[in-house]
Design a protein that fits this description.
Layout: E1 20-25, E2 30-33, E3 42-46, E4 51-59, E5 62-67, E6 70-75
Antiparallel strand pairs: 1-4, 2-3, 4-5, 5-6
């Protein structure tokens, strides 16, 4: 066990800096994925017209979202 100066640390917990900044609706049936790429596991398919909560985290065209309490990544082009 030891001590480290917090300014030099970065969280590996994706929820640590997670803030939800608004909502959007899906414009098509969209895959909710475990990570920000098409190589990540599909958690579920979210139907067109579903309202999702958008987070402040985005990567390579994907946005971290919350759908009915479930958090995952969705391709932003399908959010309006």
């Amino acid at each position: 066990m030891g001590w480290a100066y917090e300014e030099y640390l970065e969280s590996t917990n994706p929820d640590a800096n997670l803030t939800f900044v608004g909502t959007a609706k899906t414009t098509a049936n969209v895959n909710l994925r475990s990570g920000p790429s098409t190589n990540h596991e599909i958690l579920r398919v979210v139907p067109k017209g579903t309202t999702v909560e958008k987070s402040n985290q985005a990567f390579d065209g994907f946005r971290l979202v919350r759908v009915d309490g479930q958090i995952g990544w969705m391709y932003e082009a399908y959010l309006a």
